[in-house]
Amino acid sequence: MTDLEAFRRHVRDWIAANYPDSLRGPLLPDGDDTPWGGRKTVYANPDVPLWMERMGAKGWSRPEWAPEHGGAGLAPDEARVLREELAAAGCRPPVFSFGLLMLAPVLHEFASEPQKRRFLPPIARGEIRWCQGYSEPGAGSDLAGLKTRAEDHGDHWLVNGQKIWTSYADWSDWMFCLVRTDAESKHGGISFLLIDMTTPGVETRPIQLISGQSPFCEVFFTDVRVPKENLVGKPGEGWKIAKRLLQFERAGISAQVQSGTGGTPRGTSLADLAKRYCGEDGGRIADAQVREQVAKHEMHSEAIGLTLRRVEAESGKAGPTAASSITKALGAKHNKDKFELMLGIMGQAALGWEGDPFDIEEIEICRQWLRSKGNSIEGGTSEIQANIVAKQVLGLPD
Ligand SMILES: Cc1cc2nc3c(=O)[nH]c(=O)nc-3n(C[C@H](O)[C@H](O)[C@H](O)COP(=O)(O)OP(=O)(O)OC[C@H]3O[C@@H](n4cnc5c(N)ncnc54)[C@H](O)[C@@H]3O)c2cc1C
Question: Which of 78, 192, 319, 350 has its CA 20 to 30 A from that of 246?
């Protein structure tokens, strides 16, 4: 038996002994079982943090990372075998967090070694939950217009200002934040600062949305003292780091949309949903128009999936590039189209908000249809993605 085969056997046995049965089945979007990690997150199922803890102890949530950074130091072949076995056993990701998807990649590229050793292990193990402090009331698409100030006070930065649309700020332990350290230079005056949300002067106020949820907050900073060593990169390097992080964010959103492209949040395929609400005729969807719409959607899913794989293959080890804007914008439109199609298929049943006569899947689809409207705004609007693609991918003039 080769070392790799022995490793595969070890992984298989370990999963059989350690994967909690209660985590079988799909992970519902925005549900109580999302493994966000952190000190404040409350889970409906205690096996979610248990799985996080077990995988974290092995360093297997990011197996290629060095052990001192919270990984297991696995060789690429071993990490591939581990992923194959986890997928074959239907295991959910142990951690799904902004820290892991967005912050960690830029820490790897831009942080000092002491910063990596301090911040990466708790991200990998899901111990600290991060939020993203980019947008401000006057700075969304024009992000470089941000005004939150960080003044140099010798051993610390003094931060004053406001962020908005900060997803889950009230549940987060830390924020990666864009601040202005120089008022004279629009892009060159931005810095990338890590802020502990328990620091005196940080206040979060949740914003209620049409979906009934409050996933966003306004965050206010009043004379917040942030240690000097929490700045990533040099003062004024924040714009470069911010843009790189957005590429990881957009690639992450694209992959997430793609993984849920086939059907409902519970994993029912569009074809099965259509048969349930429009009837079945010899194994086919009875309504010819709906049949055509579902077939078109599935073809688009396939085409987007292939494009995603091509973009990933082209960027290779260097990670995401500006092409992540293509897949992000495509994915946003596709997901919104999918929910519109599901609503059309379900008719009045799609009006379910809560209680009888609607079942849980109908309620989830209705709420996620509303949530999908944000897809073409979050992580940068689709218009902004089109601008990036025009300039940075196609090389068109300004
Ligand atoms: C679900 C969701 C989660 C979010 N989470 C976070 C978060 O965690 N942290 C965070 O910092 N932010 C977050 N945001 C905010 C998000 O990044 C901003 O909403 C987004 O960048 C757009 O900014 P804005 O809302 O200020 O709109 P604006 O920038 O005011 O844009 C308004 C409209 O004008 C268009 N427009 C603006 N400029 C141009 C241009 N140059 N060319 C063409 N069209 C243009 C836009 O496309 C848009 O249609 C989130 C948003 C959503 C919907």
Answer: 78
Q: Do 148 and 160 meet the contact criterion of CB atoms below 8 Å apart? A: yes
Minimum CA distance residue for ligand 1 atom 16:
378
CA of 383 to the centre of ligand 1 (A): 10
Ligand 1 close to Cβ of residue 388 (< 6 A): no
- Out of 249, 361, 362, 364, which one is annotated catalytic? 249
The Cα-based distances of 386 to 159, 246, 364, 391, 397 in angstroms read 33, 15, 31, 9, 13
User: Residue 282 and residue 261: Cα distance in Å, rounded?
Assistant: 26
d(CA 254, CA 257): 5
What does the pLDDT look like over 301-353, one tens digit per residue?
999 989 989 998 998 888 999 999 999 999 999 999 999 999 999 999 998 88
Question: Is the separation of the CB atoms in 61 and 94 below 8 Å?
Answer: yes
CA distance 280 to 289: 13
β-pair type (130-133, 174-180) = parallel
- The response to whether residue 134 sits with its C-beta less than 6 Å from ligand 1 reads yes
Residue 184 bears catalytic tag: no
Specify whether the CB–CB gap between 331 and 257 falls below 8 A.
yes
> How many of the other CB atoms lie within 10 Å of CB of 356?
6
How far, in Å, CA of 334 to CA of 301, rounded? 8
Does the pTM of the predicted model rise above 0.90? yes
Residue 207 falls in which region: left (phi positive, over 0), alpha (psi -120 to 50) or beta: beta
